[in-house]
Amino acid sequence: MARKKGNLKFGNEYNMGLLTDLYQLTMAASYFEHGKNEIATFDMFVRKLPKNRNYLVAVGLEQVLEYLENLHFGEEDIAYLKKQGIFKDEFLEYLKEFRFTGDVYAVKEGTIIFANEPILRITAPRIEAQIVETYILNQINFQTMIASKASRIVHAAKKAAVVDFSPRRDHGSDAALKAARASYIAGCVGTSNVLAGKIYEIPIIGTMAHSYIMSFDDELEAFRTYAKTFPENTVLLIDTYNTIEGAKKAVIIAKEMGAKGYKLKGVRLDSGDLVELSKKVRRILDKEGLDYVKIVASSDLNEYKIAELIEKGAKIDIYGVGTEMGTSKDAPAISGVYKLCEDTNKEGKLVAKIKLSEGKITLPGRKQVYRISNKNGEYKKDIIALEEEILDGEPLLEKVMENGRRLQEKEKITEIRKRTLENLARLPKKYKSINNYEAYPVEISTKLKILIEDLIKKYGGGK
Amino acid sequence: MARKKGNLKFGNEYNMGLLTDLYQLTMAASYFEHGKNEIATFDMFVRKLPKNRNYLVAVGLEQVLEYLENLHFGEEDIAYLKKQGIFKDEFLEYLKEFRFTGDVYAVKEGTIIFANEPILRITAPRIEAQIVETYILNQINFQTMIASKASRIVHAAKKAAVVDFSPRRDHGSDAALKAARASYIAGCVGTSNVLAGKIYEIPIIGTMAHSYIMSFDDELEAFRTYAKTFPENTVLLIDTYNTIEGAKKAVIIAKEMGAKGYKLKGVRLDSGDLVELSKKVRRILDKEGLDYVKIVASSDLNEYKIAELIEKGAKIDIYGVGTEMGTSKDAPAISGVYKLCEDTNKEGKLVAKIKLSEGKITLPGRKQVYRISNKNGEYKKDIIALEEEILDGEPLLEKVMENGRRLQEKEKITEIRKRTLENLARLPKKYKSINNYEAYPVEISTKLKILIEDLIKKYGGGK
Q1: Please, which contacts does B301-310 make with residues 24 or more away whose CB atoms are closer than 8 Å?
Q2: Which one of A59, A170, B43, B164 is CB 3.0 to 4.6 Å from A147, fit for a cystine?
Q3: A188 with A94, same domain?
Q4: Which of chain A's residues have a Cβ under 8 Å away from the Cβ of B353?
Q5: Which of A223, A197, A195, A196 is CA-nearest to residue A208?
């Protein structure tokens, strides 16, 4: 039980070889044993959008590329697999030297995507392509889900800012880190999560808790003590006892700070009727010339509640959103899948593949997605085509990895965020509505349709 | 972009100092500056059960203890905080030497708990107790939520086994690891997640994917190839083209294996009408003397679907459950909170604390939970009392850490799982129903009631 110290790094994607489903490794072992390691191509796409989402924001590629570049099986990993007694030594020897050598095409992080559109495509020797499925899905499903939810919340907040306050309810540490990343990319202005701030260079934002107030004999003393420590960074939580009384005390503190040349940054409301309270608090502050003091609100918020607050005239500048955003509570999973779309046949020729299980048909072949905009730059429709086709419109998939090596440097998160917001600005308003559900038009090119029909004829009538 | 190798360990709780909300650190800095680092006590408890849960299974203590024992701020962490420009050097110096020195009381992992019952109680110098809040909530909320959901699923499955198939939809890597752990503790028989198997010593279980079948020219060849690699561990996925035809091919393989002295382990159904298909497949297998071949089913399952399958006579031995369990989809967050319940006053005396915000009243003082059983050992009711009271019944909270050191060795996961199942067996049936919602009786002791009333009188009339 000795205390351990270390410089272990979190938030990166090292040594995740074993974070895979066992069947990926058993299938790999079988492929290995039978020399079936030809080139195969897999698409990752979302089968169906959750019922209260009109679009998704693709996020998570950076972590996938980092994972693919670093993927390996360490000695302990091999020893663990050996202990299972199901793998032959030759395969374990192969795993010792394993690295990912494939090519990856993907949409840029922050791209708006719809059902059935490939987010990422892997072409690699079959074993490599297979083993990476689980982690790729785990990462892209999660960050895409969060960015999509956060985008709705940021949209609902209009000119007000949204901050990620979710770590305590996120699903573990990785979720807390990546919820902060994905929600920032989608338009949040920062996170309360310090480690996420450090790892991903996201602005960190904080106020104070009720326990702070409660550990002083009176509220004014608590406020004053905090303001002394952070004269340039004080947001006072004013609802511990009575919000209006709290606001009056905040005025006293703001004036004391003002006398010393400092400005109170804000006050926070965390309970009660946020519409009425925010209006009253705003009046109390403004009457005293404290129009620069922002009002922060939190309290189980989501896009619907924020829209209602704004509709009713709440005077709130910053929304702190936790659980609902960090767990995407109304749609806590998206149906991202990873499916074989091209394979090498016995003659060594690449052939398109289709899956025909009931209700789970897949699009065969290597594909490209073309996005067609109108003359104002607004998105009009998408066409999923075969890669060999050249259509008008913007191709969304680009090559990001070749022979296991990244082709671009890691993008700055501020660049990804900027692009995301530009993309969202080009999405017609009706799809951004949080209450209307309307499907954005996604078409299948004629050539792809013909290929699908041919394959259905060949492999069986829709079954 | 060089490839990095390393022996970094995941699934443990090192170097998580910065995985905290910024306000924990700013409050800490203010306490530090003003010498307010007296002993404070915080309870972690769940305010309200989600509407479709009658009970929760407390899990996550092991990770919290590991975190508390290892908690520190590394050089990089301090440098990052310094760069924020809001912390004074004295505080950063203090953080360099920071370690957790407090006492922890907690219920054992696998204990059944209800709303308002303390799961864990921390008594420590205020700064230490404050900084650890975020991570404790992040870990215990998640694992408790998953164990509670998994427990319902395992209960619904009756004699059939349940396996965690969730990694691809879990919220990131830590969620995938700990969903496997929590669901195993709650009664699952294993996980598909290899890394979770390695870290937590959970049985790992796997079958095969459609892509495996599709990479062969025909299904029989795919089956045969796999069976050759894993003569003792083959579960054939039989629904890629047509489940009944797949079952017939599985019979051929089972007989080929039998001729060599091996037994086919099972077949898996992943689509279609699982009731009808499982009955037909069972008949096909049994007719050929293959009653030892198990039927595994997966396909967006949850406790309701499993109960319906069983009700309708489905012949399924093992359920693979993914998304619904790994995200606790119908209740993807629980409202675990961490609240000040005792503090040191100006005279240096320990005094009970209460929070009186609207609808968010807390139970003051250091508490114990007594569980009263009837003579068969069935749980009858709980009483939340003050620690100083001695009541009949089983006290649930025990001291697990003193001065920052664990008092017990890490428990074996099989022990935790066994205890959990024993606890669940003692919970009356009506609370385990997946459709009836009935509140288990949790009372407040007379002494605790009197304390609450006194504090309300002292600090204001319910506000």
Answers
A1: B301/B153, B302/B153, B302/B329, B302/B330, B303/B152, B303/B153, B303/B155, B303/B156, B303/B434, B304/B156, B304/B434, B306/B153, B306/B156, B306/B157, B306/B160, B307/B156, B307/B434, B309/B274, B309/B275, B309/B278, B310/B156, B310/B157, B310/B158, B310/B160
A2: A59
A3: no
A4: 214
A5: A223
Over its C-alpha atoms, chain B yields an Rg (Å, rounded) of 26
State yes or no: pLDDT of A138 exceeds 60: yes
- Residue A310 CB burial class (10 angstroms; 0-12, 13-18, ≥19): middle
Determine how many CB atoms are found less than 10 A away from the CB of residue B447: 14
Given a cut of 60, is residue A175 above it in pLDDT?
A: yes
Q: Which amino acid is at B65?
A: L
Domain count across chain A: 2
User: What ipTM did this prediction achieve?
Assistant: 0.95
Give the closest-approach CA distance of B134 to chain A in angstroms: 5
- pLDDT for the residue A460: 65
Instruction: Please report, as a single letter, which amino acid is at residue A66.
Output: E
Q: How far B200 CA lies from chain A's nearest CA (Å)?
A: 12
Pair of tokens at residue B49 = 């059960």
Which of 86-105 (B) contact A at CB < 8 A?
Answer: 86, 88, 99
Using a CB-CB distance cutoff of 8 angstroms, which residues of chain B are in contact with residue A37? none
Chain A segment 179-238 residues within 8 A of B by beta carbon are: 179, 192-195, 197-198, 204-212, 214-215, 217, 225-226, 228-230, 232-233
Q: Does A134 touch chain B (CB under 8 A)?
A: yes
- Residues A27 and B206: their CA atoms lie apart, in Å, by 10
Residues B130 and B156 in one domain: no
Same domain, B279 and B254: yes
Per-window interface: B 415-444 vs A, CB < 8 A: none
Query: Strand pairing partners for A123?
Result: A41, A103
Tell whether B27 is within 8 A of chain A (Cβ).
yes
Picking from A295, A310, A326, the residue at the C-terminal end of a domain is A326
Domain ends where: A326, A353, A383? A326
Q: Which A positions 291-350 lie with beta carbon below 8 A of chain B?
A: 323, 327-329, 332-333, 336, 339-340, 343, 345-346
Q: What is the CA radius of gyration of chain A?
A: 26
Cα A313 to chain centroid, rounded: 31
**How confident is the model over A60-110, as pLDDT tens digits?**
999 999 999 999 999 999 999 999 999 999 999 999 999 999 999 999 999
* A307 and A418 share one domain: no
Question: How confident is the model over B109-167, as pLDDT tens digits?
Answer: 999 999 999 999 999 999 999 999 999 999 999 999 999 999 999 999 999 999 999 99
If asked whether residues B293 and B171 sit together in one domain, one would say: yes
Nearest-Cα residue of chain A relative to residue B164: A21
Enclosing domain of residue B266: 147-326
Residues B273 and B419 placed together within one structural domain of the fold: no
Per-10-residue mean pLDDT for chain B, 463 residues long?
36 77 97 96 96 96 95 94 97 97 98 98 98 98 98 98 98 97 98 96 94 91 97 95 96 98 97 96 98 96 98 98 98 97 94 81 95 97 97 97 97 98 98 94 98 88 42
Number of C-beta neighbours around residue B373 at 10 A: 13
Q: Do A21 and B168 touch (CB under 8 A)?
A: yes
| pLDDT for residue A13 | 59
Average model confidence (pLDDT) for chain B? Answer: 94
A161-164 and A190-191 strand pairing? parallel
Query: Could you tell me if B359 lies within 8 Å of chain A, comparing CB atoms?
Result: yes
Query: Checking DSSP bridges between strand A120-125 and strand A39-46, what pairing results, if any?
Result: antiparallel
Query: Do the chains contact at B174 and A171, CB–CB below 8 Å?
Result: yes
DSSP state of A156: H
- The candidate with the shortest Cα–Cα distance to A421, out of A238, A187, A224, A240, is A187
Inter-chain CB proximity A226 and B42 less than 8 Å: no
Residues A87, B302: Cα–Cα separation, whole Å: 32
